[in-house]
Amino acid sequence: MNKPDLKKVIILSSPSGGGKNTLINALLKINTQVEHSISTTTRQPRYDEVQGNPYYFIRVEEFETMIHERRFLEWAPVLNNYYGTTHSEIDRILKNGHIAILDIDIQGALQIKRLHPEVTTVFIEPPSLEILGERLRRRGTETDEQITERLTLANEEMKHKAAYDYTIVNDTVQKALVELQNIIHKL
User: Fold this and answer.
1) CB 39 within 8 A of CB 33
2) pLDDT tens, 159-171?
3) Residue among 91, 126, 117 nearest 13 (CA)
4) Domain range 9-185, its CATH number among 3.40.720.10, 3.40.30.10, 3.40.50.300, 1.10.1520.10
């Protein structure tokens, strides 16, 4: 089996609430070369989410079958749920001649980078843990206990930013977007 050419794949990671999705949505509005890879998860959809936006939502048993069948480029358990990127999703984007933007956690990003060093990895860093906490509370989708868990995880995740090709501090979307566009132009 031929290894896919992943030179046109950019992986964005950040702690939950770090602004990845806001940044990706802003990028998609101004750059038609990029397409957001839709991840698969076993977590329940939030009130404003539907199948295929922002995830493919499936049952745990189905996810585990897909793991066994090696249908994931990467997958990881995160906060009691599975998240993963399927080979077929990346293939679809690359065959359309687009750059694939993946929004995945640290575990998945480092897993892909080890197997495919040609991918570009970008860590989106919040300005501080305090600001990250404010963003999570404003989002209104998690309990205080879940926010505390996410902040603890964020502190651990930020220790891995040196393993990424680039780090962007997301203090304003406009500034972070310019930095991301500059990285894309280098591909």
Assistant:
1) no
2) 999 999 999 999 9
3) 126
4) 3.40.50.300
Within 13 Å of residue 97, how many CA atoms lie on the same side as its CB?
1
Structure tokens at 64: 């585990």
Angstrom distance (rounded) from CA 113 to CA 44: 28
pLDDT in tens, 130-186: 999 998 998 888 899 999 998 999 999 999 999 999 999 999 999 999 999 999 999
Cβ atoms of 7 and 117 within 8 Å: the answer is no
Please tell me the distance from the alpha carbon of residue 75 to that of residue 107, in angstroms, as a whole number. 8
Return the HEC string of 75-126.
Answer: EEEECCEEEEEEHHHHHHHHHCCCEEEEECCHHHHHHHHHHCCCCEEEEEEC
